[in-house]
Amino acid sequence: MTTTSIEANHVDTLIITVGTRQVGWRCQDGVIRSFGADGNIGYPNHVNELYQELGIERGFHQENNLNSPWSARDLGKRYYEYCREWLGGDFSQVELLLDQKIIETAIKQGLKHIILWGTDQPETVNWSFRRLDTLWLAQLMAGKIKSIFPNVRVDVHAPVINVNDSTAIRQELELLVLQEAWNYFSPSGDEEFVLWIQNKGCAPAVASSVEICAAALVRQCQVFNANPDEPEEFFPRMPNGARTAAHSQTFKLIPMGEYFWSLERLRVVSAWERGDFSEAQLWLKVHQSRHKIIYKLAGILLSYTNWETDK
Q1: DSSP characters for 225-252?
Q2: Quick check: 220 and 192 in contact, CB under 8 A?
Q3: Among 6, 163, 276, 281, whose Cα sits 20 to 30 Å from the Cα of 204?
Q4: Could you report the per-residue pLDDT of 249-270, keeping only the tens digit for each?
């Protein structure tokens, strides 16, 4: 893991927004094929090859509509049912291309709950967009994670929402994230809820909404963005000439509070100059990962000031 030199001693919940790039399948020939590689932007034709692996000819959601070929939604469902019904619940061939290292690290730090956010758009949305929904890829990920880490709770959340409806996504996320924080709230205040989010590779509206909701929580709990680093080469060639999907090997853990530091730094300086160490400590609280010494100093000065006042 690579980080921004922060302290993150434990984590309670990890929310992953699932995109097509995050999931792969280790085929019989040893090649890992990605559910998001469909022969475009220089990617190999893994989607076609994954259908061939199942002995199925790829079709279309709408006849005579070349913009609606079966994709992640249909393919993910077929592979999920294949794992459940034909392999007896064996998800060992599923590959977590972006999230493996993040999950392994979080588990070591006490992770209790993983929420996988998959997309499931309503029937009013054109098939050229619905075909890329990730609700079944999220189920594949859940099956894989549970098989490796059986003691961690894993839930799939796939509300029926248009991926471009930012308002509906944000409202749904607020309910989800706030409820999660409340479930882990410590009345004594001795344990602070710690949330990691991973929103790389999913629909842009979902990714931005997750960040907004997470940022709104920074004064109630610790929130970090677990950002997987791209592999040096997405699809390196194997000796047989086939292109296999590569895993992310490292990630950065970024405190969400950093996004506000440029503004809140001015407030800290102002409070410090006025001798209001209570206010300074308030603004510094979410920035302890980088400025713990200053935060502690503000507390010491606050105690000293109160002691002098009480004399």
Answers
A1: EEEEPPPS-SSPBPTTS-B-PPPP--EE
A2: no
A3: 6
A4: 999 998 877 666 666 667 767 7
